[in-house]
Write a structure and sequence with these properties.
- The protein is α+β, with helices and mostly antiparallel strands.
- The protein has nine helices and nine strands.
- Strands 1, 2, 3, 6, 8 and 9 form a six-stranded mixed β-sheet that branches.
- Helix 2 runs antiparallel to helix 3 and helix 4 packs antiparallel against helix 5.
- The longest helix is centred in the first third of the chain and has 36 residues.
């Protein structure tokens, strides 16, 4: 076959078609890989949808503002158990009322008291934790009540005019109807709940040595969170609350004992001290030695 014969171009055309097919396949594969990588990066780096968070998942600053909202609700409703339950839901590392006092102090030093709403919320928080025997620095940061509640100048002039008005020289006529009516007494605070301590039981547990387990319940056996329990020894004492350990239930609280010390247990203002002192000592489970623990129950009357 001669070089100029048109049929001699057959093998060359087949080679070009193969190269074109290979380049198209590489392009398609590169496109697929690019789409996959792009979607992956968009999913990882793109904006995430935020769902509803639990109170204990909030950041430190948001937790402080959430506690202010709880204090405002308490000031409006005077519902102490609900306020304590919401503070406990924040899962503080220690006493929830002390956490409220610390959070109030942090907010008070960060410009929170620049407006009236912040002052009102802070006063509600101070009222809440001081009513339960706690203290903090927030009350020292608040402006004095006299300056905040002083009447305007016009009102002061009116007061002076009223004071300058002469009083009648004759006594007013006696109102027999008013004197016969009995005075009406409106309680300002609900009565304190009373509790009674049940007999103490000791137990021996290798995983929980020298522990006082306390359960605070109502007459139906339902746990009551936020109740203060006090352990006293020598010239020291420690106050802890029921319901702080969520995994153990609303009724539960505990205290770690030390060897060679006698402890008394009571609920301040709510239950008298237990008759028997609590003291740990050696106990045995099978052939293994541990330290004796106690279980105490306080029941609402």
């Amino acid at each position: 076959m001669k070089r100029g014969d048109p049929q001699s171009n057959g093998p060359v055309a087949a080679k070009k078609r193969g190269a074109s097919y290979f380049s198209n396949a590489v392009f398609a594969l590169s496109l697929v890989i690019g789409l996959v990588v792009g979607l992956s990066l968009t999913r990882m780096l793109g904006p995430r949808q935020r769902g509803s968070a639990e109170p204990w998942q909030l950041g430190a600053d948001d937790r402080n503002h959430y506690m202010m909202a709880i204090a405002l609700e308490y000031a409006a409703r005077r519902d102490l158990p609900t306020a304590l339950n919401k503070l406990i839901a924040l899962r503080p590392a220690h006493d929830p009322l002390e956490a409220l006092a610390e959070g109030s102090c942090d907010l008070g030093g960060s410009g929170y008291l620049r407006n009236k709403s912040g002052i009102r919320a802070m006063r509600s928080a101070v009222d809440l934790y001081r009513s339960q025997g706690r203290a903090g620095c927030a009350e020292r940061l608040l402006p004095p009540l006299d300056a905040a509640s002083a009447p305007p100048a016009a009102a002061q002039e009116e007061v002076e005019i009223v004071r300058a008005t002469p009083q009648p020289t004759k006594p007013p006529l006696r109102d027999e109807t008013a004197s016969a009516a009995k005075p009406r007494v409106i309680p300002t605070r609900p009565a304190t709940r009373r509790f009674e301590g049940r007999p103490v039981r000791s137990f021996c547990d290798l995983s929980r040595p020298a522990v006082i387990e306390v359960y605070v319940v109502d007459y139906l056996g339902r746990g009551i969170p936020g109740q203060r329990i006090r352990a006293r020894w020598d010239d020291q004492e420690s106050v802890f609350l029921s319901g702080l350990k969520v995994d153990r239930g609303d009724a539960y609280a505990d205290f770690q004992m030390e060897a060679e010390i006698d402890y008394s247990l009571d609920m301040p203002g709510a239950a008298e001290a237990l008759a028997a002192s609590l003291r740990t000592g050696a106990c045995y489970t099978g052939n293994r030695q541990s330290l004796k623990s106690y279980r105490v129950t306080f029941v609402s009357n």
